[in-house]
Specification:
By secondary structure, the protein is α/β, with parallel strands linked by helices. Helices cover 38% and strands 14% of the residues. The protein contains eleven helices and eleven strands. Strands 3-2-1-4-5-6-10 form a seven-stranded parallel sheet, with helices on both faces. Helix 2 links the parallel strand 1 and strand 2. The two termini are 17 Å apart. The structure holds NADP nicotinamide-adenine-dinucleotide phosphate. NADP nicotinamide-adenine-dinucleotide phosphate binds next to helix 2 and strand 5. InterPro entries: dTDP_dehydrorham_reduct (IPR005913), NAD(P)-bd_dom_sf (IPR036291), RmlD-like-bd (IPR029903). Keywords: One-carbon metabolism. GO terms for molecular function: methionine adenosyltransferase regulator activity. Pathway: Amino-acid biosynthesis; S-adenosyl-L-methionine biosynthesis; S-adenosyl-L-methionine from L-methionine: step 1/1. Heterotrimer; composed of a catalytic MAT2A homodimer that binds one regulatory MAT2B chain. Heterohexamer; composed of a central, catalytic MAT2A homotetramer flanked on either side by a regulatory MAT2B chain. NADP binding increases the affinity for MAT2A.
Length: 324
């Protein structure tokens, strides 16, 4: 999307003198929001990407152990927020070795290096570590991932805490945010169905908790800042939006927010065959963050999704409703 790439680039400029954060996956949906959040809070931000790396972002293949060591040696971050991952379950099924190299082995190397350097390591994980049969899930509940993606992320969590016991694991559910293309998030991708002229089917059996990447970024920043003064900030945390919706219900909410028709949207109450299995309801109980006053109030879905989708509306009339 024109404009968004430039905005990220500007915010990657170092902030001399502030504490230093290294953000992996800075070209991705969450990594961009994390870079922005730390930058506006006075941190010096170094972001890494891979295929989409552009000026002011470092290109680093995290599956190359020497490249990781060189990166950390050069930048000596106080905090590492590890967002890079292959997060599409069907791609993990098709390209398992590459996904495991990134989701597990790269995480393991980063955690080892963080432990050696003393940097706080924040590993972003997923509600897909749970099977979704007995929600809500607390931080100490036993994971049981249904698909390879969930298994690889759980393995990443275990490598993180094994090699870097002072690390933070932050599990989050389905994310949306400012996207460069609608397909970057399954939530923004629903716009294509809302806009379609003909009947469209949408999943109406899996309960989801769409969460704004900006809210997750704010939680990462709060965790990083608190951890500097409180060594008990370590281990597993959950953060989630509070509104429970199926994909069908999200599409209805989007149609309603943009005053568009929704009678062409058809709810599907069975999982589509052929795709990777997904949990029916992996609701996260976020008590630990809340008790420590480290949570943020999630933005309401209808206004947050409007912020994200207005650039894709034909007449851009929603621009006037967005505050930055
Ligand atoms: P994303 O938009 O798909 O971004 C993935 C990032 O990983 C990109 O910056 C990509 O860089 C980078 N990457 C891919 N291969 C790499 C490699 N070999 N070396 C270095 N970097 C590489 O992901 P996201 O949605 O922001 O997800 C962020 C985190 O949240 C992930 O850990 C994911 O598991 C977790 N999560 C996401 C969701 C969700 O709905 N999106 C839900 C729950 C949890 P290039 O694009 O430049 O190649």
């Amino acid at each position: 999307m024109p404009g968004l790439g430039l905005r990220v680039t500007q915010e990657e400029e170092a902030f001399p003198g502030g504490p230093r954060v290294l953000v992996t996956g800075a070209t991705g949906l969450l990594g961009r929001a994390v870079c922005r959040e730390f930058h506006i809070s006075g941190w010096s931000v170094v972001g890494t990407g891979y295929r989409r790396a552009r000026p002011h972002l470092l290109r680093c293949d995290l599956t190359d152990e020497d490249a990781i060591r060189g990166l950390l040696h050069e930048h000596q971050p106080d905090v590492i927020v590890h967002c890079a991952a292959e997060r599409r379950p069907d791609v993990v099924d098709r390209h398992t070795e590459a996904a495991v190299n990134l989701n597990v082995h790269a995480t393991s190397t980063l955690a080892k290096e963080a432990a050696v350097s003393g940097a706080l390591f924040i590993y972003i994980s997923t509600d897909y570590v749970f099977d979704g049969r007995n929600p809500p899930y607390g931080e100490d509940d036993s994971p049981n991932p249904l698909n390879l993606y969930g298994r690889s992320k759980l393995e990443g969590e275990r490598e993180t805490l094994r090699h870097c016991p002072g690390a933070v694991v932050l599990r989050v559910p389905v994310l949306f945010g400012e996207v460069e293309s609608l397909t970057e998030s399954v939530v923004t991708n629903l716009w294509l169905k809302v806009e379609a002229a003909e009947g469209c089917t949408l999943d109406h059996c899996r309960q989801r908790f769409p969460t704004d990447a900006r809210d997750v970024a704010a939680v990462c920043r709060k965790l990083a800042e608190r951890a500097k003064e409180d060594p008990s900030i370590r281990g597993i945390f959950h953060f989630s939006g509070k509104e429970q919706m199926t994909n069908y219900e999200m599409a209805l909410a989007i149609a309603h927010a943009f005053n568009l028709p929704s009678n062409h949207l058809i709810p599907l109450t069975e999982q589509s065959p052929g795709s990777a299995l997904r949990p029916v309801n992996a609701q996260l109980n976020c008590t630990r963050l809340e008790l420590l006053n480290l949570s943020v109030e999630p933005r309401p879905f209808s206004s947050a999704i409007t912020d994200c989708l207005w650039p894709f509306t034909p007449d851009k009339r929603w621009r006037q409703t967005v505050f930055h």
